[in-house]
Amino acid sequence: MSPTVLVVGANRGLGLQFALQYLKKGFNVCGTFRKESADEARELLESGAKTFNLDLADETSIFKASASFGDQPLDLLINCAADGPGPRKCFDNTTEEFMHKFRVSAVGPFLVTKAFHSQIKKSESPFVVNITSSMGFLTDNKTGGDISYRTSKAALNMITVDLARELAPGNISCVAMSPGWVKTKMSGFTGHMEAPEAVERMIKVIDGLKPGTDTATSYHRDGQRLPWTVDAQTRTFPSDV
What we know:
Elements: E1 4-8, H1 13-24, E2 28-33, H2 42-45, E3 50-53, H3 59-69, E4 76-79, H4 95-115, H5 117-120, E5 127-131, H6 147-167, E6 173-178, E7 182-183, E8 193-194, H7 195-207, E9 217-220, E10 225-226
Parallel strand pairs: 1-2, 1-4, 2-3, 4-5, 5-6, 6-9, 7-8
Antiparallel strand pairs: 9-10
């Protein structure tokens, strides 16, 4: 029986590439998108993947998507959706900006994992992969800026570790993965790599993860394990994160 992957935020960018490339690998692919993003989801809808409406800012929609998914085992959950960087200047950020990013980029992936927990634990060796950013690592902050985005990703990193610890008795592994600077709509189509290649590299890393061993960890798209904190002087992150 083919494994099943659920990609949250599969209407464009990295999420769409995860869905398309896992389809080519023979997975049963499920992808989510917000109703407001339906126009962007055309390629996903025509791909053959099973699709669900899911809004990370709407807890009800998350649990409705889980109910629609049914009780089949979920082998791989990829939490890819997020609210992007900005405002750049520190004091241009508002309470609303902070709370929306925190809700979408941190609490959202947590609620998805919670909503799909019953399906995840039916898999023999499930993985939860949270797409993070180097901007969420405390001592890697050399420049400041994008404070609300940085804090939401820092929260996601902690959520990843906490889920990994609490779900370990059920043989559920949780990791975070940084795609690097990729040419997507979120980055303004700037970056060092196109989305298809970045996702191809991340899938290669995911394929090599060992259940129960590679958990509560974070990785760069090229497979380098990223420490949750880095030496501010020596900087051990890849140059392109």
